[in-house]
Fold:
Amino acid sequence: MDELSLGVPDGRITCIIGPNGCGKSTLLRALARLLRPTAGAVLLDGRAIHRLPTKEVARHVGLLPQAPVAPQGLTVADLVARGRFPHRHLFDSWSCEDEAAVEQALTVTHTAELRDQQVDELSGGQRQRVWIAMALAQRTPVLLLDEPTTHLDIAHQLEVLELLAELNRSQQRTVVMVLHDLNEAARYGHHLVAMRAGRIVAEGPPGAVVTAETVRALFGIDSRILTDPVTGGPLLVPVARAGSSPVPAAGPPSPRESRPVADRQNPITGRG
Structure:
């Protein structure tokens, strides 16, 4: 990344979008203090994040990385309880505050009924909700998520994104997430950051970022931007690679193609 400057709006959902390898995950890891910039600084409430103690950062910023893996045999309750680590000292006993934080995280993610199950036995959508519950148990005002909908079917994608939107609405959590799907980003994000080759190409509300010009600059494709009938925001419809001709839509089948297979004659015997 080079000459990159970014401000994350407080209490809003920011979505980072762009092609593979453009630096989205690198940026998120820098925001989480997992990577140290070679120049410049990452500031948390005006303070250089790399100068802050690790536990202090973990009390302010929760991170859900790509494809997290839990130790084999770990239960949901045990995993979510690990979110309390930043708030505990070496010889502290489990407190009422710890218990309340875990119970609230399980409740808001609808995973309380899964507490005794092993994490590696859950479905993809359930696992994502459990990992989010662990991050919520940290009770951080900022939540960073790297592609939280990857490898999930459309129902589980909707489930995770609706959960994050509700957390933002009800608890004013600042959410920053990397997404591949521009339509998901436009629907759930208040603030979009479009990246290419380690640089920010466009930044702002969905209507200002999801444009045919920006999509062409990011992905090299032509597109049409329609109005999302659900949100009233932009809705991307890819057309073709920039400069190429769109593939024509398939027309209705011919009468011969529409006949049942059993009605067609065998070309050798002449029989059906």
Remarks:
- The longest strand covers residues 234-241.
- The two ends are 66 Å apart (CA to CA).
- Strands lie at 13-17, 43-44, 47-48, 61-64, 142-146, 174-178, 191-196, 199-204, 221-227, 234-241.
